[in-house]
Amino acid sequence: MSSERLLRLMLRLEGARRVTASRLADEFGVSVRTVYRDVAALSAAGVPIVTESGHGGGVRVLDGWHSGLSGLTSDETTALMLLGVPGLARELGLDAESAGRKLLGVLPITVRENAAGIGARIHVDVPGWFHRDDAVPALRPLVSAVLGGRRVRMRYRTREARVVDPLGLVTKAGTWYLVAASGGRVLSYRVSRIVSVTETDEPATRPDDFDLAAWWRDATVRFDRALLRYTCTVRLSPTGVRRLADVVGTEAASAVPGATGATGPSTPEWTAEWTTAELRLEAEDVAAWQLAQLPGHVEVLAPRSLREAVGAYAVAAAELNSPPLTEPSASSCADR
């Protein structure tokens, strides 16, 4: 049972005098039986629903009853969409806490107690552990322009001011990006690098078929591919194949499919089939560091300079971690 559908059903019934179960089923894309189950669930939760059979009958809420959700402001309604993402509503200048209090206040007591219990026991910290948040003073005026459909005049880094059509905002790992149309192209701008921004009175031009999420996915793939300019040939053990994406990234690992059939070094432990693959990575120093994370599971075939660099990492690790001639005493370890 979908809690989102229950909330939508409650709001739908609140705004209607009477509606048939079959019509509700069509509107919500479910069966009539599902509608009756949802109605029963709302009734059990304390929503005063009246069902009337026969000609002209249907489902409605008791006359004079209101959920109170209509008292939410526009910003609070938007903030409700972000309640599960701590910090985002605050950065956008939206009062998620106020919206949450209003929502809890009008929910039936059993639902309210359950929601409060979950909130006290589950916390989601969205930004990465090693990410430092950017200062984004330009974010709030951009939010106003994006939601209001207005063009903005902005200056990015040290470049001259330009007028752009804001199409949306994206946050990735705690970093905000503006997606905007400029000069016939759609580009992304890191919000922390926008020096100044002013909302204009001109309406922004937005393509009817523009899909922000789809554009961002495609742009991310294009960006990742543009970085992969260094070509190398390697042999990978089955374990190396499985772990390759973890050390070089999914895009680099899948850029060029490898041909199978080669075997590993002629020692008993290397009897499994190895894979020969041509990879596209960022640069030689980056490739050496990444491939060194697969000790014993990767052999660089070309270029020779990369093979030597990966080997140097292995030699350094072996020298640093070779067993000492004498075992240190417990006291000497404790003194370190």
From TrEMBL:
The keyword Oxidoreductase does not apply. It comes from the Bacteria. GO terms for molecular function: DNA-binding transcription factor activity. InterPro entries: CBASS_pafABC_assoc_protein, DeoR_HTH, HTH_11, WCX_dom, WH-like_DNA-bd_sf, WH_DNA-bd_sf, WYL_dom. It holds the Pfam family HTH_11. Residues 2-60 form the HTH deoR-type domain. Keywords: Transcription, Transcription regulation. The keyword Transcription regulation applies. This is Transcriptional regulator.
